[in-house]
């Protein structure tokens, strides 16, 4: 699979509830591909059915003006890839905690017959103490 980004993510406020959310909008060149669009919806529905403290909560899935979108819980924190690039060095116990948390999430997903096909540091949010 290509390493191109599937879409853009925006921080927003849910006007009805006043909570901060993240909105992922799929790029138009991807949304014009029936195969990629089908995969996006299938994966969004799969994640929406998971309940785990280390998996974002899906609030909404839909389409606006021909652009598919996904509204999820907003997480404060830093993407793990940024921690690595900035050469931040959390304590070893924190590093092990990150690894254990990721393994627990993957195990949970596998128990629900979901295989994450793109595990990468950019997909992991960390909270440096």
Q: Class of the largest domain, according to the CATH hierarchy?
A: Alpha Beta
Bulk shape: globular
Fraction of residues in β-strands: 15-25%
Biggest sheet: strand arrangement: 1-2-4-3
Judged by helices, strands and strand pairing, the structural class is alpha+beta
Mean pLDDT: 87
Number of helices: 4
Describe the protein's architecture and organization.
There is one protein chain. This protein has 129 residues and is of the alpha+beta class. It folds into 2 domains: 75 residues, Phosphorylase Kinase, domain 1 (2-Layer Sandwich); 54 residues. Helix content is 35%, strand content 25%. A 4-stranded antiparallel β-sheet has the order 1-2-4-3. A two-stranded antiparallel ribbon has the order 5-6. A hairpin with a 6-residue loop joins strand 1 and strand 2. The chain is globular and about 45 Å long.
Short description:
By secondary structure, the protein is α+β, with helices and mostly antiparallel strands. It has helices at about 30, 35-50, 80-85, 90-110; strands at about 5-15, 20-25, 60-65, 65-75, 80, 125. Helix content is about 35%, strand content about 25%.
Give descriptors for this structure.
129 residues, Phosphorylase Kinase, domain 1, 2 domains, two-stranded antiparallel sheet, 6 strands, globular
Secondary structure layout plus pairing:
Blueprint: E1 7-13, E2 20-26, H1 28-31, H2 34-48, E3 58-64, E4 67-73, E5 78-79, H3 80-85, H4 92-111, E6 125-126
Antiparallel strand pairs: 1-2, 2-4, 3-4, 5-6
């Amino acid at each position: 699979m290509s390493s191109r980004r599937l879409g853009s993510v925006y921080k927003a406020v849910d006007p009805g509830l006043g909570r901060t959310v993240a909105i992922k909008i799929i790029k138009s060149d991807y949304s014009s591909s029936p195969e990629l669009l089908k995969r996006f919806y299938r994966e969004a529905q799969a994640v929406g059915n998971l309940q785990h403290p280390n998996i974002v909560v899906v609030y909404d899935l839909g389409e606006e003006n021909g652009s598919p979108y996904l509204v999820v819980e907003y997480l404060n924190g830093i993407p793990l890839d940024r921690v690595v690039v900035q050469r931040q060095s959390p304590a070893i116990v924190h590093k092990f905690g990150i690894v254990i948390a990721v393994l627990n999430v993957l195990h949970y997903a596998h128990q629900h017959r979901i295989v994450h096909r793109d595990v990468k540091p950019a997909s992991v949010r960390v909270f440096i103490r």
